[in-house]
Amino acid sequence: MVACCSAPSARASCLMEMPAELLAAALPHLFDRARPVARLACAAPCFAAALSDMGGRLRVGSVITCRLGSLVDGLARLSTRHLEILRVDLSAESRERLCSREIELAVKQLSQVLSQTAALRVLAVRLASFDVSMGRLRLSSEAWEALTLGLGALARHRRLRSLELSSIAIKPSRATRAVRGSAPEEPRRQLRRAASSPAEACAGTGAGAGGSLTFLQALERLSELEELVLTYDEIFGSTARLLPSVFRALERLKRVDLAMNHISKEEMQAVRRATPSGIQLCGEDQQTFFFY
């Protein structure tokens, strides 16, 4: 029993004797998630210093949470510059904590820090379907604009490989609404296939006048994207028809998931025909037509 108890202590003692330079280089890769990094930082001042950036924020590579409070605290206390994976699933959050106003503020806060996430490779945001009062949870115009600008800023880093936006109602008016305050447009790339119609190309591509940006244009700028998941987003045929132009602009895109939306079989087939053959389109047989 004594030997068993002393072994962890011996290992911890050896770890404590490691030079701070080695800790700074090795520990963020060994303990990349928020919880182990935070626990280790609380163990000793040298650990806290080794695991923090110049501003005192913890250098964490991955944040995966279903708690609204954890998301808000994490964005405020973590070094977003080192963040590589961010997964938020509020569908598993306790109902009494799903206040619409708090979720709005969290989405805005997340959107604002996306410009700082230079290493982010995976971003997954799944909101809850209902708030604390059992009302349908929908983003306000301000939160939607912040999200659009945040994605546009994130695109400048050219690192994002996987994006999920679920339970975020995507209406044509929101998807094509120009938001001012974006960064200058990046150089255009040649599309993999010409747009099927001038109207479709106009709706999804091209920069808005005066430095404006639409949600679809923000998606198009994610040039390294390989996976796009838009599930439970209340996407109807009118919105689905706007998406192939986005798919064609993303040269590295391999997989798109549109499951659990409101796209008819005919509309989904039209989307499939307009989608480049190299892209796997999922969700054709997983649509729902139960309207709230």
- Tally the structural domains: 2
Largest sheet: 7 strands, parallel
Which residue ranges are poorly predicted, with pLDDT under 50 across at least 5 consecutive positions? 1-9, 187-191, 193-210
- The amount of beta strand, in percent, is 5-15%
Examine the secondary-structure arrangement and name the CATH architecture of the largest domain. Alpha-Beta Horseshoe
Q: What is the number of helical segments per DSSP (H or I, 4+ residues)? A: 13
Protein name: F-box domain-containing protein
Organism: Alexandrium monilatum
Region (Disordered): 176-197
Structural key phrases:
292 residues; alpha/beta; Leucine-rich repeat, LRR (right-handed beta-alpha superhelix); seven-stranded parallel sheet; 7 strands; globular
Task: Please characterize this protein's 3D structure.
It is a single chain. With 292 residues, this protein is of the alpha/beta class. The protein has 2 domains: 17-53; 61-282, Leucine-rich repeat, LRR (right-handed beta-alpha superhelix). It has 13 helices and 7 strands. α5 (68-77) runs parallel beside α6 and α6 packs parallel to α7 (141-155). Residues 176-197 are annotated as: Disordered. This is F-box domain-containing protein.
